[in-house]
Design goal:
Rossmann fold; 2 domains; 7-stranded parallel sheet; 15 helices; 16% strand
C-alpha cells in the first residue's frame, strides 16, 4: 500500500515534530504499508532551506516551498497552485492507495485528489479551523479566508472517507449535530511520548542550576505563542497574579515570540524581569525544562468551538506530571481536570476565581512526587500513542471496502 501524507506545516515546526513525525513512524511500522510520500510546506526561501527530516523507514520527504510575494493574497494563491500542482503530478505518477491529510487546511488537497483521481482520503486532526479563527477575532465572518475555509471543511465532511477528530466533544458534535455517520468518525487526541516527556529529577536540578532557581522556588512554565486563539495581554496578567500569589515564584517562557516583545508585555504588568527566563528550545530539550517546573499555564481563549481542540502542550505538561492552569471549555481537557484532577480551571477575568485556582494548584503541589506520578497517569490514559496505533489499524483494516 502506498500512502500520501500531506501536512500544511514545515518540517521543523513544533507541531510537525510533536504530532506528525510520531504518526508517520506508527504508519511505517504497519506491514501493509509499503511506502509513505510525505509532503510539507516550507515557508522560507529556497536558498535558506535545510531539510531536517530525520529518516523514518519507508517515508520519503517532499518539501514544497512557499515564496513570500509581498502581498498575503498573492502569496496564498501562489502557494495553493504550487502545492496543488506538485501533489497532483506526484499522485498521477505514483498512484497512491490512500491520502492522509493533517488538519483541515491540508484537507483541501485530499478533496482535490479525490475529485481528480478518486483516491480515498482521510483528514486527521480535523477541527473547525474557520470557526476557531472567527471566534478568536482573527478572521471576519464575511472575509474571504473564513468563507474559503468553511467551504473547504464542508467538502471534507462530504467526501472524506474518515474524519479523525482530536476530541470526543467534536466527534459527538459531528455525529449528533451534523448527522455524520459514526462509521466515518474516529478520535485521536494530540498524543505525547510518555517516556520522552516523563519527569527527570536530574534534569530538574541541572536546569534550575543553569537558570539560578532555588530549590524552594515555585516555577510556572508556559509553552507556545500569544494572540490569535491564545490569550495575549490577559496571559501576562495571569503570570503577574501567580508572582503575587506564590511567596517565591519564577516564570519560564518557552515561546517563539521575540524577546523584546515579551519584555514589553512583562513590563506592562510590572512583572519583575529577574524572575523570568525566556527563550526557545529544540523539541527534545523541552522535557528537561518541564521537569524544572512545578506547574504549567495553558492560556487558550475559551470559546464554544474550543471544546473541539486538543492542545499538544497539555499532553506534554501532564506527561511530565505538571498540574495545568486551564480555562474552561478547552477540548476534553477542562472536563478531565474537573473530573479527575491534573490542574485547575481558571477564569482570567475573575481575580477571586484565579486565587481559588492557585489555591488548588498549591494543594496539588504539596503531594510532591506522588502528585506528579498521579498526573502523569492522565497522559498515559488520554494522550497515549497507542490510541493512534489502534485507530490507524482500524482505518487500514477498513480499506477493503473501497
Amino acid at each position: 500500500m502506498k500512502i500520501f501524507y500531506i501536512s500544511y506545516w514545515g518540517i521543523s515546526e513544533g507541531l510537525t515534530v510533536s504530532t506528525v513525525l510520531p504518526n508517520l513512524k506508527i504508519l511505517s511500522e504497519d506491514e501493509r504499508v509499503d511506502s509513505i510520500e510525505f509532503f510539507t510546506v516550507e515557508r522560507i526561501e529556497d536558498r535558506n532551506f535545510k531539510d531536517r527530516f530525520i529518516p523514518i523507514n519507508k517515508v520519503h520527504h517532499h518539501p514544497i516551498h512557499s515564496k513570500n510575494l509581498g502581498f498575503f493574497l498573492f502569496t496564498k494563491i501562489a502557494d495553493w497552485l504550487r502545492i496543488k500542482n506538485t501533489i497532483s503530478q506526484s499522485a498521477k505518477k505514483m498512484q497512491p492507495d490512500l491520502v492522509i491529510c493533517r488538519g483541515a487546511m491540508a484537507g483541501a488537497f485530499g478533496t482535490m485528489l479525490f475529485k481528480k483521481f478518486g483516491i480515498p482520503y482521510l483528514v486527521e486532526s480535523f477541527e473547525p479551523h474557520a470557526d476557531y479563527m472567527l471566534e478568536s477575532g482573527v478572521w471576519k465572518k464575511n472575509g474571504l479566508r473564513f468563507r474559503l475555509q468553511k467551504k473547504t471543511e464542508a467538502e471534507i465532511k462530504k467526501y472524506a472517507k474518515f474524519l479523525v477528530t482530536v476530541s470526543n466533544n467534536y466527534c459527538q458534535h459531528l455525529n449528533k449535530e451534523e448527522g455524520i455517520a459514526k462509521e466515518r468518525l474516529k478520535m485521536v487526541p494530540c498524543t505525547v511520548n510518555p517516556v520522552q516527556f516523563q519527569f527527570n529529577s536530574e534534569a530538574r536540578q541541572l536546569v534550575r542550576e543553569k537558570l539560578v532557581i532555588g530549590a524552594d522556588t515555585r516555577v510556572g512554565i508556559y509553552l507556545g505563542k500569544f494572540g490569535s486563539i491564545y490569550y495575549d495581554k490577559e496571559a501576562f496578567e495571569v503570570f503577574k497574579a501567580a508572582e503575587q500569589y506564590f511567596d517565591n515564584f519564577f516564570l519560564v517562557l518557552l515561546s517563539p515570540t521575540d524577546k523584546k516583545e515579551l519584555t514589553e508585555k512583562l513590563n506592562a504588568v510590572k512583572f519583575p524581569l529577574e524572575k523570568v527566563w525566556m527563550g526557545t528550545l529544540a523539541h527534545g530539550e523541552v522535557p528537561n525544562y518541564l521537569s524544572a517546573a512545578d506547574f504549567a499555564f495553558s492560556t487558550i481563549k475559551p470559546a464554544d468551538c474550543r471544546r473541539f481542540c486538543s492542545p499538544v502542550k497539555d499532553g506534554e505538561y501532564w506527561a511530565n506530571g505538571l498540574p495545568i492552569l486551564l480555562p474552561d471549555m478547552v477540548g476534553d481537557d477542562s472536563e478531565i481536570i474537573k473530573r479527575e484532577g491534573g490542574g485547575a480551571i481558571m477564569d482570567v477575568n475573575d481575580n477571586e476565581n484565579l486565587k481559588m485556582a492557585f489555591d488548588s494548584i498549591l494543594q496539588q503541589l504539596l503531594k510532591g512526587i506522588l502528585g506528579r506520578t498521579e498526573i502523569a497517569s492522565l497522559a498515559l490514559k488520554y494522550r497515549n500513542p497507542d490510541i493512534s496505533k489502534k485507530v490507524y489499524k482500524e482505518i487500514l483494516d477498513g480499506l477493503n471496502v473501497f
